[in-house]
Design a protein that fits this description.
Elements (H helix, E strand, L loop, with lengths): L1 H7 L5 H18 L7 H21 L5 H14 L4 H5 L9
Amino acid sequence: MKARRLIEGASFEPQELKIITAAFDDAWEKIAPTISKRDTAIEAARLKLADVILSIANRNAITDAKEMADAALDRMLEEPAGIRAISSAPTPSQPD
């Protein structure tokens, strides 16, 4: 998936990438059930989450995956175009 490639291509040490990937996986597990079932909504949410995780990683010491995941979820909930916009997108069975 594009989000995973974005993370794997980032300029971090191997151990840092393991923590970043774990943070992404942890955060995704928590928000995935709230995302529209449309493929485009899922991909947009995953890319947004990857971008937020990498932004946090660039600004902070990378030591704790859970802490990073929680910070990413908080940020996504705060942003107007974050998880709420993605999760409210209509599914194919819903009218636009």
